[in-house]
Amino acid sequence: MQLSLRNIGILTAGGDSPGLNVAIRGVGKTAIQQFGMRVVGFRDGFRGLMENRFIELNNDNLSGILTLGGTMLGASRDKPHRMPIAGRKADMTDIMVENFEKHRLDALVCLGGGGTQASAYKLVRKGLRIVTLPKTIDNDVAGTDVSIGFNTALTIATEAIDRLHSTAHSHHRIIVVETMGHNTGWLALGAGLAAGADVILIPEIPYDIETIAEAIRRRSLGGRGFSIVAISEGARPLEHASTAGGGNASGGKGNGHGESLGARSQQVARQLEELTGLESRLTILGHVQRGGTPSPFDRVLATHLGTSCARYVADGVTGSMIGVHGGKVTPVDLADVAGERKTVPLDHHWISAARDTGVELGD
Ligand code: F6P
Q: Helices 265-276 and 209-221, interaxial angle, to 10°?
């Protein structure tokens, strides 16, 4: 049964990712054109909801944004219950509840990664009607097969590794290429597989540097004097593997072992040079993986999720994330998503495919 909802809000929180504008467009156009709703977009994630900074979304400003990267609303990593205010972190959820009511919102749509899902769930427990969508280039949001932005980042990282191959080959070098991915290896594993990396290092499989060096030496002896090592920013050596999957699911910056993300890449490049005698170079792909126009896959995914989200909101769904499950778009209870992280299962077919094709995973 569809409710007679009048007003909805929308915000984008956490790190941006390609496809956010597509999802905003999908939610907004469906809400306005199919259900006659008023749609308010809050600026800069939860901070805009707290400061009541917003724009009215309409058919005009929702047009022409399909191919644009980033988010037209702006984003921030500020969390409702730990909002940086005058040098300290304060719980501002009550003010957000007030602004939700001031706008007479019937629902708020929050687009974000793991941290945003957890923040949204906190607001749900304060009584707000919220529906979320999963977006992150890390692909680590629980409760969905895939997140908006992952495919674009995968494409960018794959193209970059493809390009690194020719220069590594020409100079008989080891090129270590660091991908993002926070404390999960989806991006490094996917791009490494797609681009034919010789070694792939992900947080889920702690590595032994000597094992990797040996694999590179074997390649060298077999006549292949170059090697590509795709390393996830969260990768860690065996001796730091005491905790399975470091960091936290709500966007913490470290790898959970007192190190910042990416701390190991430089070291791996240096160690491999010493252990193999081959010259090595490090390329950090960084934020280029998050920038620019979304891939066709992400455009279709974000449109599907965004339009479905507006329909679920109209149907009265709340307290849920709209995710993809076996190709179908369905709501999942936010309680089952908040605080969880989808790591790469060790029996995942991408891992067995890598092993079957002789990729060294460092274990
Ligand atoms: O969560 C997305 C992500 O790009 C991670 O892959 C990366 O660790 C992090 O954000 C970088 O965050 P920031 O843009 O705040 O430096």
A: 50
